[in-house]
Amino acid sequence: MQFGMPTLIENRTLEENARLCARLGLRFIELNMNFPEYQLEALEQTDCLIRAAERKGIYYTIHLDENLNIADFNTLVSIAYRETVRRTIAVAKKLVCLRDRFGDKSQPLTLNMHMNHGIYITLPDRKVRMYERDFASYMTSYRIFRDRCEEWIGDADLRIVIENTDGFKDYEKEAIAYLLASPCFGLTWDIGHSKAAGETDVPFIMANREKLCHFHIHDGTEKPPRNHLALGDGGIDLAARLNLAEERNARCVLETKTVAALEQSVAYVEEKQR
């Protein structure tokens, strides 16, 4: 089982993140496309990414923009998001060589994505989610997305992994199930998000556990809902989650938000592995 780190806001450059990753004995950095320094145009400078990784003996996974909205009703927007994914897949293909040198070839290189809930309309007695109301259109967008991703990924050892956040909606579960029928897609279990959401996603995740290939590991609490805590600072059964990650041969991001919390989490893992 290999551990890596997220992109940290305290580090302004790739080199700072790479130095920290190597110092802590971690194997990879998950490059977050929500950060201005990791926008697509920067990631497409793959020679720079590769040189920085080679100097420290690490590799990369990618976290797609959290705003990614595959089913946006504005086709100009949905086309732009699909194009973003296409070009990011092209980047990831060029980074597989680092996984082969410094990682584990038995684990596909991952592109992590969120499901966008879409907007809702507030009525006097309830909220109506537009993707639920226009479910046929929603699913058409995901059929197009799956077809395109299969075409773009081809035979490359890449996987787009879908992360839980604050509870999957029923319409999202249907779209995810459709995506998971393709070998190009898998699941990320974010155990802190899961805890803060009252573990509402656990039945769905466990029903699809054979698709788990990526974990975001951080501690959390349900009441009050908190996550991204250093390991040991919350109420999650970390041993059970890490055992499942190992069983699934999954890659694990220690997804804290500060350097100090990451250092504490690395120390926690090292202590438990002794």
Q: Would you mind describing this structure in some detail?
A:
The protein has a single domain, classed as Alpha-Beta Barrel (TIM Barrel). It is 45% helix and 20% strand. The protein has helices at residues 14-23, 40-43, 46-56, 75-102, 130-133, 135-153, 170-180, 191-196, 202-207, 238-247, 259-273; strands spanning 3-6, 28-32, 59-63, 109-114, 120-122, 127-129, 158-163, 185-190, 212-217, 219-221, 226-229, 251-254. An eight-stranded parallel beta barrel has the order 1-2-3-4-7-8-9-12, surrounded by six helices. The chain has a two-stranded antiparallel sheet with strand order 5-6. A hairpin with a 4-residue loop joins β10 (219-221) and β11. α1 (14-23) packs parallel to α3 (46-56), α3 (46-56) packs parallel to α4 (75-102) and α4 runs parallel beside α6 (135-153). The longest helix has 28 residues, at 75-102.
- The level 1 CATH classification is Alpha Beta
Neighbour order of strands in the largest sheet? 1-2-3-4-7-8-9-12
Give the overall silhouette.
globular
If helices are DSSP runs of H or I spanning 4 or more residues, what is the number of helices? Answer: 11
Main beta sheet, described? 8 strands, parallel, barrel
- Which fold name is given in CATH as the topology? TIM Barrel
> What count of domains describes the coordinates?
1
How much β-strand is present in the residues? 15-25%
Note poorly predicted spans: none
Helix-strand sequence: EHEHHEHEEEHHEHEHHEEEHEH
**What is the straight-line distance between the termini?**
14 Å
Q: What number is the mean pLDDT?
A: 98
Give helix % range.
40-55%
Radius of gyration, whole Å? 18 Å
Any idea what the CATH architecture is? Alpha-Beta Barrel
| CATH level-four homologous superfamily name | Divalent-metal-dependent TIM barrel enzymes
Number of strands: 12
Counting helices, strands and paired strands, the structural category is alpha/beta
